From TrEMBL:
Membrane-crossing segments per the record: 20-41, 276-298
Enzyme Commission number(s) from the entry: 2.7.13.3
GO molecular function, one term: phosphorelay sensor kinase activity
Record protein name field: histidine kinase
Length: 558
Protein backbone atom coordinates (compact mmCIF):
# COMPACT_ATOMS: atom_id res chain seq x y z
CA UNK A 1 0.00 0.00 0.00
CA UNK A 2 1.45 3.35 -1.02
CA UNK A 3 1.96 6.15 1.48
CA UNK A 4 -0.83 8.26 0.02
CA UNK A 5 -3.32 5.36 0.05
CA UNK A 6 -2.30 4.54 3.62
CA UNK A 7 -2.86 8.17 4.63
CA UNK A 8 -6.34 8.09 3.11
CA UNK A 9 -7.17 4.86 4.92
CA UNK A 10 -5.99 6.27 8.25
CA UNK A 11 -7.90 9.51 7.59
CA UNK A 12 -11.11 7.59 6.87
CA UNK A 13 -10.68 5.51 10.01
CA UNK A 14 -10.01 8.50 12.27
CA UNK A 15 -12.74 10.64 10.70
CA UNK A 16 -15.22 7.79 10.99
CA UNK A 17 -14.46 7.23 14.67
CA UNK A 18 -14.39 10.95 15.50
CA UNK A 19 -17.76 11.59 13.82
CA UNK A 20 -19.75 8.38 14.17
CA UNK A 21 -18.99 7.84 17.86
CA UNK A 22 -20.41 11.24 18.99
CA UNK A 23 -22.85 11.60 16.08
CA UNK A 24 -24.84 8.43 16.77
CA UNK A 25 -25.75 9.26 20.41
CA UNK A 26 -26.33 12.89 19.38
CA UNK A 27 -28.83 11.85 16.71
CA UNK A 28 -30.40 9.25 19.00
CA UNK A 29 -30.91 11.86 21.71
CA UNK A 30 -32.45 14.27 19.22
CA UNK A 31 -34.79 11.63 17.82
CA UNK A 32 -35.80 10.35 21.26
CA UNK A 33 -36.26 13.91 22.48
CA UNK A 34 -38.38 14.75 19.44
CA UNK A 35 -40.55 11.67 19.99
CA UNK A 36 -41.01 12.37 23.70
CA UNK A 37 -41.68 16.05 23.08
CA UNK A 38 -44.16 15.20 20.32
CA UNK A 39 -45.99 12.81 22.62
CA UNK A 40 -46.09 15.32 25.46
CA UNK A 41 -47.28 18.11 23.16
CA UNK A 42 -49.95 15.88 21.63
CA UNK A 43 -51.22 14.96 25.08
CA UNK A 44 -51.26 18.64 26.04
CA UNK A 45 -53.24 19.58 22.92
CA UNK A 46 -55.69 16.73 23.45
CA UNK A 47 -56.14 17.67 27.09
CA UNK A 48 -56.71 21.32 26.19
CA UNK A 49 -59.37 20.50 23.61
CA UNK A 50 -61.02 18.00 25.98
CA UNK A 51 -61.08 20.59 28.75
CA UNK A 52 -62.54 23.16 26.34
CA UNK A 53 -65.32 20.72 25.43
CA UNK A 54 -66.11 20.01 29.09
CA UNK A 55 -66.11 23.67 30.07
CA UNK A 56 -68.25 24.71 27.13
CA UNK A 57 -70.62 21.81 27.67
CA UNK A 58 -71.12 22.93 31.25
CA UNK A 59 -71.84 26.46 29.99
CA UNK A 60 -74.49 25.24 27.52
CA UNK A 61 -76.03 23.02 30.21
CA UNK A 62 -76.14 26.00 32.55
CA UNK A 63 -77.79 28.16 29.88
CA UNK A 64 -80.52 25.59 29.17
CA UNK A 65 -81.08 24.94 32.85
CA UNK A 66 -81.49 28.67 33.50
CA UNK A 67 -84.00 29.01 30.67
CA UNK A 68 -86.02 26.10 32.05
CA UNK A 69 -85.89 27.68 35.51
CA UNK A 70 -87.04 31.04 34.11
CA UNK A 71 -90.22 29.48 32.69
CA UNK A 72 -90.81 27.32 35.76
CA UNK A 73 -90.62 30.40 37.98
CA UNK A 74 -93.01 32.36 35.78
CA UNK A 75 -95.46 29.44 35.69
CA UNK A 76 -95.30 29.06 39.45
CA UNK A 77 -96.11 32.72 40.20
CA UNK A 78 -98.75 33.13 37.50
CA UNK A 79 -102.08 31.47 36.79
CA UNK A 80 -103.41 30.09 33.54
CA UNK A 81 -106.22 32.66 33.55
CA UNK A 82 -103.86 35.58 34.12
CA UNK A 83 -101.41 34.58 31.38
CA UNK A 84 -104.25 33.84 28.98
CA UNK A 85 -104.78 37.60 28.79
CA UNK A 86 -102.65 39.03 25.94
CA UNK A 87 -101.85 42.13 28.00
CA UNK A 88 -100.72 40.12 31.02
CA UNK A 89 -98.73 37.71 28.80
CA UNK A 90 -96.95 40.58 27.07
CA UNK A 91 -96.13 42.14 30.43
CA UNK A 92 -94.79 38.81 31.70
CA UNK A 93 -92.72 38.38 28.50
CA UNK A 94 -91.26 41.85 28.97
CA UNK A 95 -90.23 41.01 32.51
CA UNK A 96 -88.76 37.72 31.31
CA UNK A 97 -86.73 39.43 28.63
CA UNK A 98 -85.54 42.02 31.11
CA UNK A 99 -84.10 39.29 33.30
CA UNK A 100 -82.53 37.03 30.66
CA UNK A 101 -83.00 38.41 27.14
CA UNK A 102 -82.79 34.87 25.77
CA UNK A 103 -86.35 34.39 24.48
CA UNK A 104 -88.02 35.57 21.30
CA UNK A 105 -91.67 34.70 22.13
CA UNK A 106 -93.92 33.30 24.86
CA UNK A 107 -97.12 31.21 24.62
CA UNK A 108 -99.76 29.58 26.82
CA UNK A 109 -101.43 26.24 26.00
CA UNK A 110 -104.40 24.52 27.63
CA UNK A 111 -104.50 20.83 28.45
CA UNK A 112 -105.84 20.08 24.98
CA UNK A 113 -102.81 21.64 23.28
CA UNK A 114 -104.62 24.69 21.96
CA UNK A 115 -102.46 27.81 21.76
CA UNK A 116 -104.56 30.04 24.02
CA UNK A 117 -102.32 33.11 24.15
CA UNK A 118 -99.11 34.16 22.33
CA UNK A 119 -96.77 37.11 22.23
CA UNK A 120 -94.08 37.25 19.59
CA UNK A 121 -93.34 37.82 15.91
CA UNK A 122 -95.60 35.03 14.58
CA UNK A 123 -99.39 34.47 14.44
CA UNK A 124 -99.81 31.21 16.33
CA UNK A 125 -102.95 31.73 18.47
CA UNK A 126 -105.59 29.04 18.18
CA UNK A 127 -103.33 26.40 16.61
CA UNK A 128 -103.76 22.92 18.03
CA UNK A 129 -100.43 21.42 19.24
CA UNK A 130 -101.88 18.33 20.88
CA UNK A 131 -100.11 15.93 18.49
CA UNK A 132 -96.77 17.77 18.51
CA UNK A 133 -93.89 15.80 20.00
CA UNK A 134 -92.71 18.55 22.29
CA UNK A 135 -96.23 19.05 23.74
CA UNK A 136 -96.73 15.40 24.52
CA UNK A 137 -93.24 15.18 26.12
CA UNK A 138 -93.94 18.26 28.26
CA UNK A 139 -97.28 16.88 29.47
CA UNK A 140 -95.64 13.56 30.25
CA UNK A 141 -92.42 14.73 31.95
CA UNK A 142 -93.29 18.16 33.31
CA UNK A 143 -90.73 20.05 31.23
CA UNK A 144 -89.03 19.70 27.88
CA UNK A 145 -86.31 21.26 25.77
CA UNK A 146 -86.86 20.39 22.16
CA UNK A 147 -84.46 19.56 19.35
CA UNK A 148 -84.27 22.10 16.57
CA UNK A 149 -87.43 21.80 14.49
CA UNK A 150 -89.50 23.98 12.11
CA UNK A 151 -93.02 23.44 13.39
CA UNK A 152 -95.89 25.58 12.21
CA UNK A 153 -93.66 28.61 11.73
CA UNK A 154 -91.51 26.72 9.18
CA UNK A 155 -88.33 28.13 10.70
CA UNK A 156 -85.73 26.13 12.69
CA UNK A 157 -86.02 26.92 16.39
CA UNK A 158 -85.68 25.47 19.90
CA UNK A 159 -88.44 25.71 22.50
CA UNK A 160 -88.47 25.34 26.28
CA UNK A 161 -91.78 24.26 27.81
CA UNK A 162 -92.95 23.61 31.38
CA UNK A 163 -96.17 22.11 32.67
CA UNK A 164 -98.15 23.93 35.37
CA UNK A 165 -101.27 23.08 37.39
CA UNK A 166 -104.13 25.46 38.00
CA UNK A 167 -107.83 25.20 38.78
CA UNK A 168 -107.54 21.45 38.82
CA UNK A 169 -106.22 21.14 35.30
CA UNK A 170 -102.75 21.18 33.66
CA UNK A 171 -101.55 23.80 31.25
CA UNK A 172 -98.27 24.54 29.42
CA UNK A 173 -96.08 27.62 29.25
CA UNK A 174 -93.70 27.61 26.27
CA UNK A 175 -90.97 30.01 25.09
CA UNK A 176 -88.75 29.99 22.00
CA UNK A 177 -85.04 30.54 22.64
CA UNK A 178 -83.63 33.40 20.59
CA UNK A 179 -81.59 31.75 17.83
CA UNK A 180 -78.90 34.44 17.87
CA UNK A 181 -78.52 34.24 21.64
CA UNK A 182 -78.35 30.44 21.56
CA UNK A 183 -75.82 30.50 18.72
CA UNK A 184 -73.69 32.96 20.65
CA UNK A 185 -73.63 30.55 23.58
CA UNK A 186 -72.92 27.36 21.62
CA UNK A 187 -70.57 28.81 19.01
CA UNK A 188 -68.66 31.09 21.33
CA UNK A 189 -65.61 28.85 21.28
CA UNK A 190 -62.99 29.76 18.64
CA UNK A 191 -59.64 27.99 18.87
CA UNK A 192 -57.26 29.54 16.38
CA UNK A 193 -58.49 29.87 12.82
CA UNK A 194 -60.04 26.41 12.40
CA UNK A 195 -61.26 25.52 15.89
CA UNK A 196 -65.05 25.56 16.42
CA UNK A 197 -67.81 24.14 18.63
CA UNK A 198 -71.29 22.90 17.73
CA UNK A 199 -74.12 20.72 19.03
CA UNK A 200 -75.32 17.38 17.65
CA UNK A 201 -78.29 15.30 18.70
CA UNK A 202 -78.24 11.52 18.87
CA UNK A 203 -78.88 11.28 15.13
CA UNK A 204 -75.87 13.48 14.36
CA UNK A 205 -78.04 16.42 13.27
CA UNK A 206 -76.78 19.94 13.88
CA UNK A 207 -78.56 21.66 16.80
CA UNK A 208 -76.46 24.78 16.38
CA UNK A 209 -74.83 26.42 13.42
CA UNK A 210 -71.34 25.11 12.58
CA UNK A 211 -69.41 28.18 11.37
CA UNK A 212 -67.22 26.41 8.81
CA UNK A 213 -69.91 24.27 7.20
CA UNK A 214 -73.36 22.81 7.75
CA UNK A 215 -76.73 24.35 8.56
CA UNK A 216 -79.26 23.72 11.28
CA UNK A 217 -81.02 20.38 11.03
CA UNK A 218 -78.44 18.99 8.55
CA UNK A 219 -76.63 15.77 9.39
CA UNK A 220 -72.92 16.04 10.06
CA UNK A 221 -71.08 13.66 7.67
CA UNK A 222 -68.63 12.74 10.44
CA UNK A 223 -71.19 12.40 13.22
CA UNK A 224 -70.51 8.68 13.61
CA UNK A 225 -66.96 9.52 14.69
CA UNK A 226 -68.01 12.34 17.01
CA UNK A 227 -70.63 10.36 18.93
CA UNK A 228 -68.57 8.15 21.24
CA UNK A 229 -71.07 7.21 23.95
CA UNK A 230 -72.45 8.90 27.01
CA UNK A 231 -69.45 8.38 29.26
CA UNK A 232 -66.72 9.40 26.81
CA UNK A 233 -65.30 12.90 26.92
CA UNK A 234 -61.81 12.46 25.53
CA UNK A 235 -60.10 13.67 22.35
CA UNK A 236 -58.68 11.96 19.31
CA UNK A 237 -57.67 12.55 15.69
CA UNK A 238 -59.93 11.51 12.82
CA UNK A 239 -59.78 11.78 9.05
CA UNK A 240 -62.95 13.61 8.02
CA UNK A 241 -64.87 12.97 4.84
CA UNK A 242 -63.64 16.23 3.32
CA UNK A 243 -60.09 14.87 3.42
CA UNK A 244 -58.94 17.02 6.35
CA UNK A 245 -57.57 15.49 9.52
CA UNK A 246 -59.05 17.04 12.65
CA UNK A 247 -58.63 16.60 16.36
CA UNK A 248 -61.92 16.60 18.22
CA UNK A 249 -63.40 16.24 21.69
CA UNK A 250 -67.05 15.79 22.61
CA UNK A 251 -69.03 15.79 25.82
CA UNK A 252 -72.58 14.71 26.60
CA UNK A 253 -74.91 17.39 28.00
CA UNK A 254 -77.02 16.71 31.09
CA UNK A 255 -79.95 19.01 30.33
CA UNK A 256 -80.51 17.58 26.88
CA UNK A 257 -79.38 14.40 25.05
CA UNK A 258 -77.08 16.42 22.89
CA UNK A 259 -73.34 16.22 22.43
CA UNK A 260 -71.14 19.30 22.32
CA UNK A 261 -68.30 18.79 19.81
CA UNK A 262 -65.11 20.88 19.62
CA UNK A 263 -62.92 20.34 16.53
CA UNK A 264 -59.73 21.84 15.11
CA UNK A 265 -57.61 21.01 12.06
CA UNK A 266 -54.58 18.96 13.08
CA UNK A 267 -52.37 21.09 10.86
CA UNK A 268 -53.15 24.11 13.04
CA UNK A 269 -53.46 22.21 16.31
CA UNK A 270 -50.01 20.67 15.93
CA UNK A 271 -48.44 23.67 14.21
CA UNK A 272 -46.07 24.27 17.12
CA UNK A 273 -45.01 20.65 16.99
CA UNK A 274 -44.00 21.06 13.36
CA UNK A 275 -42.03 24.16 14.27
CA UNK A 276 -40.24 22.22 16.97
CA UNK A 277 -39.51 19.47 14.44
CA UNK A 278 -37.99 22.08 12.14
CA UNK A 279 -35.89 23.45 15.00
CA UNK A 280 -34.75 19.94 15.93
CA UNK A 281 -33.95 19.21 12.28
CA UNK A 282 -31.98 22.44 12.03
CA UNK A 283 -30.09 21.54 15.23
CA UNK A 284 -29.47 18.07 13.81
CA UNK A 285 -28.09 19.44 10.54
CA UNK A 286 -26.04 22.15 12.25
CA UNK A 287 -24.72 19.76 14.91
CA UNK A 288 -23.87 17.08 12.38
CA UNK A 289 -22.17 19.65 10.17
CA UNK A 290 -20.21 20.99 13.13
CA UNK A 291 -19.14 17.49 14.17
CA UNK A 292 -18.09 16.66 10.63
CA UNK A 293 -16.25 19.96 10.27
CA UNK A 294 -14.43 19.61 13.58
CA UNK A 295 -13.76 15.94 12.87
CA UNK A 296 -12.35 16.73 9.44
CA UNK A 297 -10.14 19.47 10.82
CA UNK A 298 -8.81 17.32 13.65
CA UNK A 299 -8.38 14.37 11.30
CA UNK A 300 -6.33 16.48 8.94
CA UNK A 301 -4.08 17.60 11.79
CA UNK A 302 -3.73 14.09 13.20
CA UNK A 303 -2.95 12.56 9.80
CA UNK A 304 -0.44 15.33 9.18
CA UNK A 305 1.27 14.55 12.48
CA UNK A 306 1.22 10.83 11.73
CA UNK A 307 2.76 11.53 8.33
CA UNK A 308 5.49 13.63 9.94
CA UNK A 309 6.05 10.88 12.51
CA UNK A 310 6.27 8.27 9.77
CA UNK A 311 8.71 10.42 7.84
CA UNK A 312 10.77 10.84 10.99
CA UNK A 313 10.63 7.09 11.59
CA UNK A 314 11.77 6.41 8.03
CA UNK A 315 14.59 8.91 8.47
CA UNK A 316 15.55 7.28 11.76
CA UNK A 317 15.46 3.86 10.14
CA UNK A 318 17.79 5.11 7.43
CA UNK A 319 20.13 6.44 10.11
CA UNK A 320 20.01 3.13 11.98
CA UNK A 321 20.63 1.31 8.72
CA UNK A 322 23.67 3.46 7.99
CA UNK A 323 24.88 3.16 11.57
CA UNK A 324 24.63 -0.61 11.37
CA UNK A 325 26.53 -0.63 8.10
CA UNK A 326 29.23 1.51 9.61
CA UNK A 327 29.37 -0.83 12.60
CA UNK A 328 29.82 -3.76 10.24
CA UNK A 329 32.50 -1.81 8.43
CA UNK A 330 34.36 -1.38 11.70
CA UNK A 331 34.20 -5.10 12.43
CA UNK A 332 35.46 -5.86 8.92
CA UNK A 333 38.29 -3.35 9.12
CA UNK A 334 40.67 -5.74 10.90
CA UNK A 335 40.32 -8.40 8.23
CA UNK A 336 40.64 -5.87 5.45
CA UNK A 337 43.75 -4.37 7.03
CA UNK A 338 45.40 -7.78 7.23
CA UNK A 339 44.40 -8.54 3.65
CA UNK A 340 45.83 -5.24 2.45
CA UNK A 341 49.02 -5.81 4.42
CA UNK A 342 49.98 -8.97 2.49
CA UNK A 343 50.19 -7.37 -0.98
CA UNK A 344 51.96 -4.40 0.54
CA UNK A 345 54.65 -6.68 1.97
CA UNK A 346 55.09 -8.27 -1.45
CA UNK A 347 55.38 -4.83 -2.96
CA UNK A 348 57.98 -3.90 -0.36
CA UNK A 349 60.06 -6.99 -1.13
CA UNK A 350 59.86 -6.39 -4.85
CA UNK A 351 60.89 -2.80 -4.41
CA UNK A 352 63.90 -3.87 -2.31
CA UNK A 353 64.92 -6.32 -4.99
CA UNK A 354 64.65 -3.62 -7.61
CA UNK A 355 66.80 -1.34 -5.53
CA UNK A 356 69.60 -3.92 -5.35
CA UNK A 357 69.33 -4.91 -8.99
CA UNK A 358 69.26 -1.43 -10.43
CA UNK A 359 72.78 -0.77 -9.12
CA UNK A 360 74.29 -3.33 -11.46
CA UNK A 361 71.83 -3.22 -14.32
CA UNK A 362 73.07 -2.62 -17.77
CA UNK A 363 71.02 -1.69 -20.70
CA UNK A 364 69.87 -4.69 -22.68
CA UNK A 365 70.72 -7.19 -19.99
CA UNK A 366 68.41 -9.84 -18.56
CA UNK A 367 67.92 -7.80 -15.39
CA UNK A 368 65.89 -5.23 -17.27
CA UNK A 369 63.29 -7.89 -18.01
CA UNK A 370 63.21 -8.84 -14.37
CA UNK A 371 62.61 -5.25 -13.45
CA UNK A 372 59.73 -5.14 -15.82
CA UNK A 373 58.25 -8.30 -14.27
CA UNK A 374 58.61 -6.79 -10.83
CA UNK A 375 56.85 -3.69 -11.97
CA UNK A 376 54.02 -5.82 -13.37
CA UNK A 377 53.72 -7.64 -10.09
CA UNK A 378 53.60 -4.36 -8.26
CA UNK A 379 50.81 -3.17 -10.50
CA UNK A 380 48.89 -6.39 -9.83
CA UNK A 381 49.23 -6.10 -6.08
CA UNK A 382 48.35 -2.46 -6.17
CA UNK A 383 45.22 -3.43 -8.13
CA UNK A 384 44.31 -5.88 -5.39
CA UNK A 385 44.69 -3.14 -2.82
CA UNK A 386 42.53 -0.86 -4.94
CA UNK A 387 39.82 -3.51 -5.21
CA UNK A 388 39.80 -4.14 -1.49
CA UNK A 389 39.68 -0.49 -0.54
CA UNK A 390 37.01 0.16 -3.18
CA UNK A 391 34.84 -2.55 -1.63
CA UNK A 392 35.22 -0.92 1.76
CA UNK A 393 34.33 2.51 0.41
CA UNK A 394 31.38 1.23 -1.57
CA UNK A 395 30.01 -0.55 1.45
CA UNK A 396 30.28 2.49 3.71
CA UNK A 397 29.07 5.00 1.13
CA UNK A 398 25.44 6.26 1.57
CA UNK A 399 23.25 4.88 -1.22
CA UNK A 400 19.64 5.21 -2.30
CA UNK A 401 17.15 2.37 -2.15
CA UNK A 402 16.83 0.71 -5.55
CA UNK A 403 14.83 -2.51 -5.81
CA UNK A 404 15.71 -4.89 -8.62
CA UNK A 405 15.90 -8.56 -9.48
CA UNK A 406 18.78 -10.16 -7.55
CA UNK A 407 20.35 -13.47 -8.65
CA UNK A 408 21.15 -15.07 -5.31
CA UNK A 409 24.04 -17.19 -6.61
CA UNK A 410 25.99 -14.24 -8.03
CA UNK A 411 25.00 -12.00 -5.15
CA UNK A 412 26.16 -14.37 -2.41
CA UNK A 413 29.40 -15.04 -4.32
CA UNK A 414 30.21 -11.32 -4.11
CA UNK A 415 29.35 -11.27 -0.42
CA UNK A 416 31.54 -14.31 0.17
CA UNK A 417 34.54 -12.52 -1.37
CA UNK A 418 34.17 -9.75 1.21
CA UNK A 419 34.23 -12.07 4.24
CA UNK A 420 36.29 -15.02 3.05
CA UNK A 421 39.58 -13.33 3.87
CA UNK A 422 38.47 -12.73 7.47
CA UNK A 423 37.42 -16.36 7.75
CA UNK A 424 40.80 -17.55 6.45
CA UNK A 425 42.69 -15.27 8.83
CA UNK A 426 40.57 -16.51 11.76
CA UNK A 427 40.98 -20.14 10.78
CA UNK A 428 37.26 -20.58 10.14
CA UNK A 429 36.04 -22.92 7.43
CA UNK A 430 33.69 -20.85 5.24
CA UNK A 431 31.43 -22.80 2.86
CA UNK A 432 28.81 -21.73 0.32
CA UNK A 433 26.19 -23.96 -1.26
CA UNK A 434 24.41 -22.17 -4.09
CA UNK A 435 22.37 -23.94 -6.84
CA UNK A 436 23.17 -23.14 -10.44
CA UNK A 437 19.58 -22.48 -11.54
CA UNK A 438 19.84 -18.75 -10.84
CA UNK A 439 17.28 -18.30 -8.07
CA UNK A 440 16.01 -14.71 -8.07
CA UNK A 441 14.44 -12.45 -5.47
CA UNK A 442 13.24 -8.85 -5.69
CA UNK A 443 14.94 -6.32 -3.42
CA UNK A 444 17.64 -3.76 -2.85
CA UNK A 445 21.06 -5.39 -3.33
CA UNK A 446 22.82 -3.01 -0.96
CA UNK A 447 20.37 -3.76 1.85
CA UNK A 448 20.51 -7.48 1.20
CA UNK A 449 24.29 -7.17 1.34
CA UNK A 450 23.94 -5.47 4.71
CA UNK A 451 21.77 -8.29 6.02
CA UNK A 452 24.02 -11.14 4.93
CA UNK A 453 27.24 -9.42 5.98
CA UNK A 454 25.72 -8.87 9.42
CA UNK A 455 24.62 -12.49 9.75
CA UNK A 456 27.94 -13.89 8.46
CA UNK A 457 30.03 -11.62 10.67
CA UNK A 458 27.89 -12.58 13.68
CA UNK A 459 28.46 -16.24 12.79
CA UNK A 460 32.21 -15.66 12.52
CA UNK A 461 32.19 -13.93 15.91
CA UNK A 462 30.30 -16.87 17.42
CA UNK A 463 32.64 -19.58 16.12
CA UNK A 464 35.76 -17.53 16.99
CA UNK A 465 34.48 -17.11 20.53
CA UNK A 466 34.01 -20.86 20.92
CA UNK A 467 36.70 -22.47 18.74
CA UNK A 468 39.36 -19.78 18.42
CA UNK A 469 41.47 -20.24 15.28
CA UNK A 470 40.71 -23.92 14.76
CA UNK A 471 37.51 -25.90 14.30
CA UNK A 472 35.11 -23.10 13.41
CA UNK A 473 32.69 -23.56 10.57
CA UNK A 474 30.29 -21.13 8.86
CA UNK A 475 28.15 -22.05 5.86
CA UNK A 476 25.73 -20.22 3.58
CA UNK A 477 23.24 -22.42 1.71
CA UNK A 478 20.51 -21.45 -0.76
CA UNK A 479 17.44 -23.64 -1.25
CA UNK A 480 14.20 -23.16 -3.12
CA UNK A 481 10.67 -23.83 -1.98
CA UNK A 482 7.41 -23.40 -3.90
CA UNK A 483 7.18 -19.61 -3.88
CA UNK A 484 10.19 -18.61 -1.83
CA UNK A 485 13.96 -18.63 -1.87
CA UNK A 486 15.48 -19.56 1.49
CA UNK A 487 19.04 -18.77 2.60
CA UNK A 488 20.44 -20.54 5.68
CA UNK A 489 23.41 -18.96 7.48
CA UNK A 490 24.63 -21.58 9.96
CA UNK A 491 27.51 -21.84 12.37
CA UNK A 492 28.85 -24.24 14.99
CA UNK A 493 29.28 -21.57 17.61
CA UNK A 494 28.02 -21.52 21.19
CA UNK A 495 24.31 -21.30 20.29
CA UNK A 496 21.57 -19.42 22.16
CA UNK A 497 19.07 -20.32 24.86
CA UNK A 498 15.32 -19.67 24.51
CA UNK A 499 15.38 -16.34 26.37
CA UNK A 500 18.16 -14.99 24.15
CA UNK A 501 16.33 -16.13 21.00
CA UNK A 502 13.18 -14.28 22.10
CA UNK A 503 15.12 -11.00 22.34
CA UNK A 504 17.59 -11.40 19.49
CA UNK A 505 15.72 -9.06 17.10
CA UNK A 506 15.01 -6.36 19.69
CA UNK A 507 16.81 -3.03 19.16
CA UNK A 508 19.95 -2.53 21.25
CA UNK A 509 19.99 -6.13 22.49
CA UNK A 510 23.41 -7.79 22.15
CA UNK A 511 25.28 -10.72 23.66
CA UNK A 512 28.67 -9.30 22.72
CA UNK A 513 31.00 -7.72 25.28
CA UNK A 514 30.62 -3.96 25.88
CA UNK A 515 32.13 -1.96 23.04
CA UNK A 516 31.94 -4.87 20.61
CA UNK A 517 28.46 -4.29 19.20
CA UNK A 518 25.61 -1.79 19.02
CA UNK A 519 22.69 -4.22 19.33
CA UNK A 520 21.13 -2.75 16.18
CA UNK A 521 22.33 -5.13 13.49
CA UNK A 522 19.73 -7.89 13.77
CA UNK A 523 16.95 -5.37 14.46
CA UNK A 524 17.80 -3.58 11.22
CA UNK A 525 18.07 -6.90 9.38
CA UNK A 526 14.63 -7.89 10.63
CA UNK A 527 13.14 -4.60 9.39
CA UNK A 528 14.82 -4.89 5.98
CA UNK A 529 13.60 -8.45 5.38
CA UNK A 530 10.07 -7.68 6.61
CA UNK A 531 10.02 -4.63 4.32
CA UNK A 532 10.81 -6.86 1.35
CA UNK A 533 7.89 -9.14 2.20
CA UNK A 534 10.10 -11.86 3.65
CA UNK A 535 10.72 -13.51 7.00
CA UNK A 536 13.76 -14.11 9.16
CA UNK A 537 13.84 -16.98 11.61
CA UNK A 538 16.46 -18.35 13.99
CA UNK A 539 16.87 -21.84 15.39
CA UNK A 540 19.62 -22.49 17.89
CA UNK A 541 20.81 -25.06 20.39
CA UNK A 542 23.18 -24.20 23.20
CA UNK A 543 26.57 -25.81 22.55
CA UNK A 544 25.76 -26.77 18.95
CA UNK A 545 25.33 -23.54 17.04
CA UNK A 546 22.69 -21.46 15.30
CA UNK A 547 20.92 -21.28 11.95
CA UNK A 548 19.46 -18.01 10.66
CA UNK A 549 16.97 -18.63 7.85
CA UNK A 550 15.89 -15.84 5.52
CA UNK A 551 12.85 -16.49 3.34
CA UNK A 552 12.18 -14.09 0.46
CA UNK A 553 9.43 -14.20 -2.18
CA UNK A 554 10.67 -15.80 -5.35
CA UNK A 555 10.88 -13.41 -8.31
CA UNK A 556 9.75 -14.77 -11.65
CA UNK A 557 11.04 -13.24 -14.86
CA UNK A 558 8.29 -11.66 -17.00
Amino acid sequence: MTGRAYDRKIARFILGNMTIVPLVPFLVLLVVGAILFSGAMEKSIMARISQTARDHGMMVDSFLNERRADLALLASISSFEALSSPENLETAFGNLQASSGAFMDLGVFDEAGVHVAYTGPYRLEGIDYQEEFWFRKTMATGSWISDVFTGFRKTPHVVVAVRAQGAGRPWVLRATIDTDVFQAVTGEVRIGQTGEAFLLNDEGVYQSIRPSRGKLMEKDPDSDAYVMGDGWAGARVIACRDGVKRVFASVRLTEKPWRLVVVQDTREAFENRMRIYLVIFAVMVAGSGALLGVGYGLTTRIVSRIRRSDDAAVHLEEQLYRAARLAELGEMAAGFAHEINNPLQVMQSELAYMAETVRDVEEGTEEVGMIRESLDQMRLQIGRCSDITRSVLNFGRKSTTRDQAVVMGDFLADVAKMVRSRAEVSGVQFLTEVPENGSRVWGDPSRLQQVFLNLINNALDAVEARHGSCGGKVSVAVREEVDTVCVDVSDNGSGMDEETRSKIFSPFFTTKPPGSGTGLGLSVCFGIIEGMGGRIHVSSTVGEGSVFTISLPRHLEQ
